[in-house]
Every structure is written in C-alpha cells, then in structure tokens.
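Quick one: co-fold with zinc ion.
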Amino acid sequence: MLTLGLLPGPNEVRLHKINHYLSPIVDELLEFWNGIEIPAAGRKIRLALICCSNDIPAARKLCGHISASVSCHRCYKRANSISNKLNFGGFDDMSEWFVRNLLKHRQDAENWRLCKSEEERKRHVSLTSVRWTELLRLPYFNPIRHLIIDPMHCLFLGIAHWIIKKLWIDGNKITKHDLELMEKRAKIIKIPADLGRIPNKITTGDGFSGFTADQWKSFILIYAIPLMWDLLDEPDRKILGNFVRACTLLVCRIIDDKTLSEAHEHLLKVAMLIEENYGPERITPNLHLCLHIADCCRDYGPLYSFWCYSFERMNGILGRSL
Ligand SMILES: [Zn+2]
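Sure, here it is.
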C-alpha cells in the first residue's frame, strides 16, 4: 500500500476543498498516464487510477458528487422526501434509473467551475448533483463507474447495523433480555481461530456497541441466524435470511455471474421487505447503493479485490502511530 498523502485535522476537509489536496497527486498521475521511462529496466511504464474505494462521505468529495442522502452517484435515483426526511423507497421504476451519462457528468462538472458565486454553485449542485473534482483532469477517469460501492461500509457497517440496531433493537423487536440470551449463545459457539475477533460482547451499551466492521461481518456470516432466528417474527426472518444469503454469496473468493445475479436478487428482496414492513422512510442510501455492488463485482472481481478492509486496518496502524 502506498500512502500519497494525509489530510490535516482536526476536522474533515469540506466538499470541493479536497481539490487543493488532490491537485498535486493528479499532476503526478497525469505524468504517469503519459508514460515514465524506467532506465534500469529499459521500459516505459504507464499508470492509471481506475478504482476509488471509500466510505460514502469521502467518495462523494473525491469524485464530485452530491450527498448520498440526496441522490445515487451511479444511477438517476433521487431521494424521496417524507415530512422533510429523505429516503430511497420505491422500486417500481427501477428500469428508469439506468447508469449515469459520463459526458453529461463531465459537462456539468465543467459548468460548476463557471459558477460565479457560492450560491450559484449550490444551485448548480442541487440541479445536477455534480461538482468539479480535480480527478476529472485525468482524461480516462470515470467518476461514476470507477467509484465503487464499498461492501464493508455498505453491507456490514451500514445495512447490518441498520437492520439490527435501528429496526430491531430501537424498534423493540429485540429486547435487552434477547440480547443477553444471544450473548450466552454466542459464547458457546466455537469457530476456527483464524476468523478474527469473535463478536461475543453483544449486550455492551445499547447492544452491539463498538462493533468493528470485521465483527459485523463475522456476526452476519456466522452468528446471526443461530443466535436470532427464534427471536424474530416471520417478516424479519425473511429479511435476515435474504441478507445473510446475499452476504454469504458475495464474500466468496471466486464468484461468477449467476452467483452475482442471485446475490443481487436477495439484496433487492431485503430492501423491498423492509419497505413493505417498515415503510419507505426506512430505506436508507445504503439499501439503495447495495443494489450496485453486483455491477462493481462485474467490473473489479470478488469483493476482496476492492473492499476497504485492508485500508481500514492501515488507518488503525496510522492512527496508533500518531
Ligand atoms: Zn443507484
């Protein structure tokens, strides 16, 4: 892993201001795209940026898209508004979402630069969902297709957390007593030692407090069904069953097109079941974005090749060394 830069704190850099940090990196990427001679090897090499893997806020800043709570960056789905709260409910018009148009995106981003005031820029972004990013100076760069949906943030820190914490624990479907029972059950399950940290501190805080992305993954893939099945009613069992099946298919190290289609169908069922049983206002950006994961796999291969787990570990190492 090559660290090209660290953004200074204490707060995250805001929106397009990230361009000040991207600009020198893009200058170097342009040199590499044009070709660099390696005399010792007697070769000329070229290098291109073809995949951006981030959490949602970083993804939107890096590639110049509007907030994920307003609009998807890969298709034309925009959030609905119910009593001033945005959601991504409604699946009847899926055929109309289709992939975004790259040429129009580039034109809209160029037009953002021509805006003469902050107000004009804001109006432009709410109309087009696009702002300028320095990455667009790379002639080959596609800020729609090269910006993947990170499965670690989307599936495990996003949807797993949303279903179990927000829908079931906060909705009193899973009680404190149920959490204690689940923790007891988790402690008697023996799993191979190389599966990472065992998520057995289920009752901490309000439940599942401090769970890492790794623990959410282990919980969903191994523990969720045996620990929770008899505690859930029928619709919630269907939600859990479909979600666990989708994740189990997606984390395979070798994955084919048929498996991807099956995983996609299960994720779509999860979103539609949540809409049917909890209402469209409970459809979060992640429940929409996960419907693009199969296409990301078709571009980049199995999840292991592009998810953020290795970067997250690197963040941990960097954080400890500061
Ligand atoms: Zn979309």
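If it helps, The chain has two domains: 15-137, 151-321.
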